[in-house]
Inverse folding.
């Protein structure tokens, strides 16, 4: 997936703190909480799967599409 | 020689170096521009200044123009003659174009050199090119690529890091708390140190409520001891932080959804 990476371009060398898709996830309060809780669960249980809301998945798919067509 | 005039001329000679440095230390490394000692700034400014002054002098010669150093020397001497000022007045447009083009190219060169250093990862690979912003390399996980780094990423790359999870120990009224959350921002102080870090989805617990370790060495679940903190971001002042723990994660797709995974 294109959005997995924290992209740097020649003109913008300051890489963001998060990847594009995590940035989108953090933009949704509900999904952001799921991500943080998944990390905490991972630390205690060894594995943590979480599902994103439909809106966030659509936004990520759109961002991937835009990256591909760029 | 007039002290005011000579100072002005010296400053004018150094402007290309100042422009070069200002644009080389830009964006995430802009604090470095202001942080160095006066001596270091002077040296780091003189070298690029000399380079651009020499380059432009010979470039002008190549294009058929003569930079009259006698006029320049006479203007800053104790007894400047009128003809020198008259010469400057007559060639004011050319002198202005000569200098403005040099300042512009110096600034652009500084910016482009920095972009090349970052794009080619020379600052991670060679200490000579490394910027002084140590927190930048730490918070973004770029230190994994340092040759002296004891921890290296074997399967993933620094670019695979999708987010950083922070655990910070702070003390409030004599009680130590651990705050955790996803790092979303940081600010540097004027001396180049860390000023604040901002985390989202923060939780905290008393340090005393550590997980119990079972006989098999497994960590017990202590999530019930965490207190969720409502709000968009929690700003932690670095001066009040005792320890910081950074964990770098990526996300994997599975059939059931996304799974966070520590980069390795």
């Amino acid at each position: 997936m294109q959005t997995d990476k924290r992209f740097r371009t020649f003109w913008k060398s300051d890489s963001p703190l998060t990847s594009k898709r995590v940035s989108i996830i953090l933009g949704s309060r509900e999904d952001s909480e799921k991500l943080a809780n998944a990390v905490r669960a991972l630390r205690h249980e060894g594995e943590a799967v979480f599902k994103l809301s439909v809106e966030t998945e659509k936004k990520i798919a759109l961002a991937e599409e835009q990256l591909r067509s760029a | 020689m007039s002290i005011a005039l000579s100072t002005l001329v010296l400053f004018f000679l150094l402007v290309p170096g100042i422009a070069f440095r200002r644009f080389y230390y830009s964006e995430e490394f802009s604090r470095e521009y202001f942080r160095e000692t006066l001596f270091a700034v002077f040296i780091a400014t003189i070298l690029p200044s000399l380079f651009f002054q020499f380059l432009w002098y010979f470039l002008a010669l190549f294009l058929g123009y003569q930079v009259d150093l006698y006029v320049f020397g006479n203007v800053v001497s104790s007894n400047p003659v009128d003809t020198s000022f008259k010469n400057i007045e007559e060639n004011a447009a050319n002198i202005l174009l000569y200098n403005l083009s040099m300042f512009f190219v110096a600034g652009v060169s500084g910016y482009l050199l920095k972009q090349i250093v970052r794009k080619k990862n020379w600052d991670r690979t060679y200490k000579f090119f490394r910027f002084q912003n140590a927190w930048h390399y730490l918070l973004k996980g770029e230190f994994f690529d340092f040759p002296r780094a004891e921890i290296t990423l074997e399967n993933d790359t620094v670019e695979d890091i999708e987010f950083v999870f922070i655990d910070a120990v702070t003390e409030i009224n004599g009680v130590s708390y651990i705050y955790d959350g996803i790092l979303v921002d940081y600010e540097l102080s004027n001396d180049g140190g860390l000023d604040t870090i901002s985390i989202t989805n923060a939780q905290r617990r008393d340090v005393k409520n550590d997980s119990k370790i079972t006989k098999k060495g497994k960590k017990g679940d202590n999530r019930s001891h965490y207190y969720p903190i409502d709000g968009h971001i929690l700003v932690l002042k670095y001066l009040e932080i005792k320890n910081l723990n950074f964990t770098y994660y990526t996300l994997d797709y599975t059939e059931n959804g996304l799974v966070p995974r520590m980069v390795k």
